[in-house]
């Protein structure tokens, strides 16, 4: 199925998700321009993972729409899902397969030809410095290795949009540098990326657009410069979502 030529890489319109009495996502609307590197930031429990899960077809919204290059994620999932590579929060990987077997299995499920999967799996394992781990069972992987294998599975079918939930969490600095290079190359080659992160310096370093989510709502969105103004992103973030009274609670019983 063809993507619509003028549609943004990702458009979320009025997304809503409620868990029992908790309104986790409260009418989130966002537009991720084509070719952008888009950072999604927000405090713990703000609704980032829930929004991204609805955006990529992992969690059905109570209301609203998610479109990938103009293809509706929920009414035309095959078209939309072919265009997107996802690194979800808490990715479940096939634990009893080796890294290479897991990539082969997931690539074949994606409908890729066997020789294409073999070639790409080899390259991904090598670029992500998982060569040796290609022979190791996933159950023996460290958290960072899992993240890298998850990224490899997201890239395997050459998507046009990557949606990455905390891709740098638990990844060592050398691997992080490798991942940054891969992601920058992906954008330079015409791809689009949305990533969530708590690391403001990383978002400032990588992203050209950013959205701040707070209590299930979009508190600010735009280019990096529009959102941070003349401040650092961290200061802008704290200004947008911090305690309005500016109070820092102390644990009095810890002081002697
Ligand atoms: N499956 C669920 N059942 C019930 N409540 C949930 C569920 N998933 C998320 N929530 C709640 O929805 C809200 C948003 O959670 P979400 O995981 O989307 O936040 P987040 O911004 O990704 O947080 P973090 O930065 O801590 O990962 C939180 O209050 C969370 O407790």
UniProtKB/TrEMBL annotation:
Subcellular localization, as worded in the UniProt entry: Cell membrane
Domain of life: Bacteria
GO MF annotations in UniProt: ATP binding; ATP hydrolysis activity
Record membrane topology: Peripheral membrane protein
Name by which UniProt lists this protein: ABC transporter ATP-binding protein
SMART domains named in the record: AAA
One of the protein's GO biological processes: response to antibiotic
Pfam families: ABC_tran
Coiled-coil region list: none
Keywords, alphabetical: Antibiotic resistance, ATP-binding, Nucleotide-binding, Transport
Family matches, as CDD domains: ABC_DR_subfamily_A
GO cellular component: plasma membrane
Domain ABC transporter: 10-240
SUPFAM superfamilies: P-loop containing nucleoside triphosphate hydrolases (SSF52540)
InterPro entries, sorted: AAA+_ATPase, ABC_transporter-like_ATP-bd, ABC_transporter_ATP-binding, P-loop_NTPase
């Amino acid at each position: 199925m063809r993507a619509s030529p003028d549609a943004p890489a990702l458009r979320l319109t009025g997304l809503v998700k409620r868990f029992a009495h908790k309104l986790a996502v409260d009418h989130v609307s966002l537009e991720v321009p084509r070719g952008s590197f888009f950072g999604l930031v927000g405090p713990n429990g703000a609704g980032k993972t829930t929004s991204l899960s609805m955006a990529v077809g992992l969690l059905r919204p109570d209301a609203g729409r998610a479109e990938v290059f103009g293809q509706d994620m929920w009414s035309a999932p095959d078209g939309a899902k072919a265009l997107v590579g996802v690194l979800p929060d808490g990715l479940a990987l096939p634990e009893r397969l080796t890294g290479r077997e897991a990539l082969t299995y997931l690539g074949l499920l994606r409908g890729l030809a066997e020789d294409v999967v073999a070639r790409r799996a080899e390259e991904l394992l090598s670029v992500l410095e998982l060569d040796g781990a290609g022979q190791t069972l996933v159950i023996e992987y460290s958290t960072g290795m899992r993240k890298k294998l998850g990224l490899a599975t997201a890239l395997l079918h050459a998507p046009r949009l990557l949606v990455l939930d905390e891709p740098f969490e638990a990844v060592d600095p050398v691997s992080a540098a490798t991942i940054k290079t891969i992601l920058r190359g992906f954008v330079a080659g015409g791809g689009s990326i949305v990533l969530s992160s708590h690391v403001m310096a990383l978002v400032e370093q990588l992203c050209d657009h950013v959205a701040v989510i707070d209590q299930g709502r979009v508190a600010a969105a735009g280019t990096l410069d529009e959102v941070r103004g003349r401040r650092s992103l961290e200061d802008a973030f704290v200004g947008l979502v911090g305690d309005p009274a500016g109070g820092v609670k102390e644990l009095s019983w810890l002081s002697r």
